[in-house]
């Protein structure tokens, strides 16, 4: 302060008291009750008092309290100011009080919030914030942010701010709490600032023999006010309130996290807001707009391109996804005990209470919109705690192998998988997209639930004496496995099947010795998929830039990402031996793979967009570096048990059907090339017949190239004879 530099002999306490009496005298002498506070000397006197306190602290030692600070505490000046602010006399006084409180908490360095004559008025001023029609939201949220900042610096004061009441405490706990307050917290005029007290607000500190119940404060406590201000129409106010909540939620002390989780309504209020925003979303949102909706950052949800993201309901979507992003960010920052409580609150109150009925409703439009919203949520969520709850909500906890007729173990999971084969193509595409997003999340139980639990015992493989599975059923004429089943298929005539087999065998004329599945060399698997589609049904050679090498580049990048995703999942690198004690007669691939295989089996009859999504999900599954999943989806040479299907066997059936249908369409190849050029935007729309079939053939060809590329990047190089165990290091 300049005045101190000019007059070093000035008595600080006298000056401090003089300024305070100048404020109180105003109320005794003034007669004009309408005069705004800014037209009085009150703001100037408050500033002088603050400057004196700051200067005084700088002159004191770390363990000393100056006479001005003792005067402020002993005479309860903060309490009086809070009362004056509540009365709003003179008009605008509340603004001045909020500014003074904020500055004193920022500029005074020693801990203050544990002192009764500080935290009591702070509590009262908090209760004056967030009122309807408030004109001081900016000052209020800054004041609350300062409080949270002080709590972040000194977490032990949290229990002095939250106003948590306890009832039915044991005698021992009550006396302990009373001693703590008397010795450390209830000082009116401290001779020095006390050491940090321990937390005394959580039920875990009570004696085992005593019972306790925590009563949440009225809707005026710090948590309530911050959540209320987070709804403000003023973006800066809402953002500051969210930042304050993050400061509280990220307190690293376990006691603080437990206090917030168990003794405050923090989790309930945050989830109530989520449910409220979700209920405000229009029922007739456009699914296309939902799928293309960008990720929203909670700190500034309205910085996106307004024109490109302006559609009916876009503002509601921005608010909902901004709040979801905020909760996701909070869950990543919060200690485990608080994150777990909040994630379970989201699961029980929002996912189960609000979202599940919407997903199971009878209205197709309602199912479509809510599934699209759920897909967007899964794509955006990153926190492990929320990802886990989403997976449990959607898929359940079952770990046993699925049974073909078992449909009620988890109702939502069953319905979602059935929706992948829904009569509405839009619902099917959207639900498949949802599962694809789930498979991109770093949560191992997703893949286990959908596929691996049905494949882990390898019951799909024919067991032979000595533990060696015969892998020669495409080269050994005496083999009595899948070829026999395929030859009996009505889509295959003897000549057609032999022709198909000759194409498949053109890759290698060598006689192979029997070996375990999983040791098949890369060249054989790659060529099996590349040669699967007959030459007259291929169009890549007619269009520039449609070669196999593009898929290899993309597959290599995706496989590296997938491997990094699963690195901590502790998967075995070798195939599990088949066990003769396990019956393979009732092998069932699981409802999810069954639906995907059924869809691939109808690839020649389905819309182009649906085929793209089905193949995208299967490609995602094929990328995972799990030996059983790799064998089941990418090894054409496994000897399947009767009645079992693999991805390759399903594709063989599709090729058989295609060979028959090609014969019925004149100029098939020319029409196929034309449709491909149309899809690439090189040719205009014309009235070509059999468009669905032709588009299906194009997707089939590209899918086979994609599978070949995935097999290529996953397995050893063509010149390497190492087995699957070494593939991850190749």
UniProtKB/TrEMBL annotation:
It comes from Esox lucius. This is FHF complex subunit HOOK-interacting protein C-terminal domain-containing protein. Residues 589-681 form the FHF complex subunit HOOK-interacting protein C-terminal domain. Residues 469-480 have a biased composition (Basic and acidic residues). Residues 172-194, 466-486 are annotated as: Disordered. Belongs to the FHIP family. InterPro entries: FHIP, FHIP_C, FHIP_KELAA_motif.
């Amino acid at each position: 302060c300049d005045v101190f530099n000019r007059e070093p002999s000035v008595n600080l306490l006298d000056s401090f008291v003089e300024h305070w009496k100048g404020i109180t005298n105003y109320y005794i002498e003034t007669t004009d009750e309408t005069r705004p506070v800014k037209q009085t000397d009150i703001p100037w006197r408050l500033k002088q008092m603050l400057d004196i306190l700051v200067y005084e602290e700088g002159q004191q030692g770390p363990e000393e309290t100056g006479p001005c600070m003792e005067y402020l505490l002993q005479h309860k000046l903060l309490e009086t100011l809070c009362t004056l602010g509540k009365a709003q006399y003179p008009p605008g006084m509340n603004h001045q009080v909020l500014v003074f409180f904020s500055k004193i908490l920022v500029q005074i360095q020693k801990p203050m919030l544990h002192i009764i004559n500080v935290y009591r008025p702070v509590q009262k001023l908090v209760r004056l914030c967030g009122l309807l029609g408030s004109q001081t939201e900016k000052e209020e949220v800054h004041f609350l942010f300062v409080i949270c900042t002080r709590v972040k610096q000194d977490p032990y004061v949290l229990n002095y701010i939250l106003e948590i009441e306890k009832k039915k405490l044991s005698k021992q706990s009550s006396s302990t709490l009373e001693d703590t307050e008397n010795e450390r917290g209830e000082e009116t005029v401290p001779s020095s600032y006390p050491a940090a007290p321990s937390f005394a607000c959580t039920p875990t500190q009570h004696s085992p023999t005593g019972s306790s119940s925590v009563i949440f404060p009225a809707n005026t406590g710090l948590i309530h006010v911050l959540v209320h201000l987070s709804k403000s129409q003023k973006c800066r106010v809402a953002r500051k309130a969210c930042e304050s909540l993050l400061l509280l939620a990220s307190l690293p002390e376990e006691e603080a996290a437990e206090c917030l989780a168990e003794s405050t309504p923090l989790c309930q209020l945050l989830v109530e807001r989520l449910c409220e925003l979700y209920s405000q979303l229009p029922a007739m949102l456009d699914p296309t707009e939902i799928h293309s909706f960008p990720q929203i950052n909670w700190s500034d949800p309205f910085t996106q391109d307004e024109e490109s993201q302006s559609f009916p309901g876009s503002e509601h979507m921005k608010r909902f996804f901004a709040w979801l992003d905020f909760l996701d960010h909070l869950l990543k920052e919060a200690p485990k005990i608080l994150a777990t409580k909040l994630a379970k609150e989201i699961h029980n109150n929002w996912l189960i209470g609000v979202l599940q009925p919407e997903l199971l409703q009878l209205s197709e439009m309602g199912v479509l919109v809510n599934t699209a919203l759920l897909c967007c949520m899964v794509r955006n969520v990153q926190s492990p705690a929320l990802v886990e709850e989403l997976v449990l909500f959607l898929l359940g906890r079952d770990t046993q192998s699925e049974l073909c007729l078992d449909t009620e173990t988890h109702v939502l999971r069953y319905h979602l998988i059935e929706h992948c084969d829904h009569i509405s193509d839009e619902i099917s595409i959207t639900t498949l997209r949802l599962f694809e997003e789930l498979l991109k999340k770093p949560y191992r139980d997703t893949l286990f639930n959908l596929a691996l639990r049905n494949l882990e015992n390898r019951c799909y493989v024919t067991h032979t004496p000595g533990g060696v599975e015969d892998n020669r059923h495409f080269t050994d004429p005496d083999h009595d496995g899948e070829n026999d089943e395929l030859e009996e298929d009505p889509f295959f005539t003897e000549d057609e099947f032999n022709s198909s087999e000759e194409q498949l065998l053109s890759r290698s004329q060598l006689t192979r010795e029997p070996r375990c599945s999983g040791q098949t060399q890369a060249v054989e698997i790659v060529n099996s998929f590349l040669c699967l589609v007959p030459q007259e049904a291929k169009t890549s050679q007619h269009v520039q830039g449609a070669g196999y090498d593009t898929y290899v580049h993309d597959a290599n990048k995706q496989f590296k990402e997938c491997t990094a995703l699963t690195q901590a999942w502790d998967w075995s690198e070798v195939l599990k031996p088949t066990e003769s004690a396990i019956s393979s007669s009732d092998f069932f691939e699981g409802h999810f793979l069954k639906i995907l295989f059924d869809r691939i089996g109808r690839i020649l009859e389905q819309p182009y967009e649906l085929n793209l999504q089905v193949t995208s999900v299967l490609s995602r599954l094929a990328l995972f570096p799990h030996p059983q999943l790799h064998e089941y989806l990418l090894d054409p040479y496994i000897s399947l048990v009767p009645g079992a299907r693999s991805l390759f066997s399903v594709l063989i059936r599709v090729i058989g059907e295609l060979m028959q249908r090609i014969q019925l369409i004149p100029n098939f190849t020319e029409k196929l090339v034309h449709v491909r050029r149309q899809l690439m935007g090189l040719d205009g729309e014309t009235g070509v017949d059999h468009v669905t079939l032709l588009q299906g053939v194009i997707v089939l060809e590209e899918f086979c190239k994609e599978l070949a590329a995935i097999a290529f990047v996953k397995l050893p190089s063509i010149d390497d004879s190492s087995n699957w165990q070494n593939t991850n290091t190749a």
